[in-house]
Amino acid sequence: MGPSAEFAKAVGLGTARQLQVQMKDWSRRWAVPSLPSKIHIRVNPHLRTSIARYKRDQKSIEVGPRFLTLRTRKAEVLAHELAHAAIDQRYGPAAKVHGTEWQALVTAVGFPPRARLVTKRKAHSHSIRVRKFVYEHRCPVCQMVRVSRRVVRAWRCRSCVEGGLPGNLKITKTGRPG
Questions:
Q1: Which of 14, 34, 62, 148 has CB 3.0 to 4.6 Å from 44, enough for a Cys bridge?
Q2: 101 and 148 in one domain?
């Protein structure tokens, strides 16, 4: 198994070979020399929040677009994920994800044992949008008010509807949410 052709094409053949050599070295140091041949590395273009991840059930490592854009630290990310696979093979699912065993393996190959790699990430169009306003929904007949962080056109004034009126509310944008 090892890196897929798609992975090699995405990172470049030279980088893929270099990472494969490093993976073999790490696996020997971790006393699981057959590990690189058992783990499949592939590109997942839909991976947005993580740089990479180890999938225990598929015995694979998925790398996302953020991994591919890293200029440096690809080896650190791959060591992080491969260490998860090594822990899984050596200790089974009972070991903690970023526990002492995992930390020892990552440290043994020269990387800091951190759970997250901080990178400069560009904002994506699907990022969470911070709403700066609240919306007041007011009945023009009885002055009943409902407030929300978004416009809700389906709301009606209950007492006006019960009285036979349409119960439509006038919606106005007000200040910041509290």
A1: 62
A2: no
